[in-house]
Amino acid sequence: MIFQVKVIPNSKEERIIRTEEGLTVKVKAKAINGKANKALIDTLSRYFKVKKSEVIILSGEKTRRKRVEIRKL
User: Fold this and answer.
1) CATH code, domain with 10
2) What pLDDT shows up at residue 73?
3) Beta bridge partners of 68
4) Is 55 exposed, middle or buried (0-12, 13-18, 19+ CB in 10 A)?
5) Which one-letter DSSP state was computed for residue 33?
6) CA 57, CA 54: separation in Å to the nearest integer?
7) Helices and strands (H, E) in the chain, number of each type
8) Is there a contact between 73 and 3 (Cβ–Cβ < 8 Å)?
9) What is the span of the domain harbouring residue 24?
10) How confident is residue 64, by pLDDT bands cut at 50, 70 and 90?
11) Tell me, what's the pLDDT at 18?
């Protein structure tokens, strides 16, 4: 399953919000050296109850808007 995701780094809380456009994910990690992307993968894997290796960022590694694939859904 592929989702459009908007990431909000350096947030006070980790949270996932469903919107009409896809998902908005707030992560505590800063957008430095891929830390926010790693936090995004960790947060989505816990939310969908899948392994981290089953969460793949398809595009947007350096932007806030990303396309993410969740395998085994």
Assistant:
1) 3.30.1200.10
2) 66
3) 3, 57
4) buried
5) T
6) 10
7) 1, 5
8) no
9) 2-70
10) very high
11) 95
